[in-house]
Amino acid sequence: KNQVEQSPQSLIILEGKNCTLQCNYTVSPFSNLRWYKQDTGRGPVSLTIMTFSENTKSNGRYTATLDADTKQSSLHITASQLSDSASYICVVREVYSSASKIIFGSGTRLSIRP
Amino acid sequence: NAGVTQTPKFQVLKTGQSMTLQCAQDMNHNSMYWYRQDPGMGLRLIYYSASEGTTDKGEVPNGYNVSRLNKREFSLRLESAAPSQTSVYFCASSDLAGTEAFFGQGTRLTVV
């Protein structure tokens, strides 16, 4: 069973609409959680990081939430733009872990239609 | 500022051939990583180097070898390529203490 599961696998929305992507994890003990954006044919780029003590963090039109009790995170995108079309990857790191314990979700592929 | 540079961007190999994927970073990062990304799956760690002079196996090391040539460069070698190694390979680097990884643009490898 994957330790980081994302849903939905893919999503299509119209330009200007909002959407929310979900990430559930079982990684424990938990250090932090990052959301990455991966454009087609490119490497992932970090959008935001959240530690266990943070509930909400915004980066422009992106807002990430974290519930460390239920081990759930979400990424909300407001007023979507065509450039938001990408895969969004949730990445969780264990406390005091080596690199081998950074675990990637399989991503949500988001498509924005004009 | 180039960040993380990978070469080549595309490669087609025949089964049994060998090749080396090159990676260099100019951010003075201590840690470097090699991942593979298969369709519908998350990035999986092949090998990593926490600092110059050290390398360790990740989740899927079989069929690969690595060399941390110096602080800037971390290469991945396939000694005898197999079709199962068809994938997109990403190199990344990060500070020793930080967790944000900066990724290269990827190498799309096809083994026929």
Beta-strand residue percentage of chain A? over 45%
Percent of sequence in beta strands of chain B: over 45%
Low-confidence region ranges of chain A: none
Tally of DSSP β-strands of chain B = 11
Largest sheet: number of strands, sense, barrel closure of chain B? 7 strands, mixed
Give the fraction of residues assigned to helices of chain A. under 10%
Euclidean distance between termini CA atoms of chain A = 37 Å
Overall structural class of chain B, as computed from helix and strand content, comes to mainly beta
Class based on secondary structure composition and strand pairing of chain A: mainly beta
Give the number of helices of chain B. Answer: 0
Terminal Cα span of chain B:
36 Å
Q: Helices and strands of chain B, in N-to-C order? A: EEEEEEEEEEE
In terms of quaternary structure, the protein is: heterodimer
Number of strands of chain A: 11
Largest interface: A-B, 24 and 26 residues
- Principal-axes geometry of chain A comes out as globular
Rg of Cα set of chain B: 13 Å
Q: What share of residues of chain B is helical?
A: under 10%
C-alpha-based Rg of chain A, rounded? 14 Å
Summarize the structure.
The complex is a heterodimer of chains A (114) and B (112). With 114 residues, chain A is mainly beta.
In words, what does this structure look like?
The complex is a heterodimer of chains A (114) and B (112). Chain A has 114 residues and is mostly beta strands. Chain A has strands at residues 4-7, 10-14, 19-25, 30-38, 45-51, 56-59, 62-67, 72-77, 86-94, 102-104, 108-113. Chain B is an all-beta fold and 112 residues long. Chain B has no helices and eleven strands. Chain B is globular, with a radius of gyration of 13 Å.
How would you describe this structure in keywords?
heterodimer; A: 114 residues; mainly beta; six-stranded mixed sheet; five-stranded antiparallel sheet; 11 strands; B: 112 residues; seven-stranded mixed sheet; four-stranded antiparallel sheet
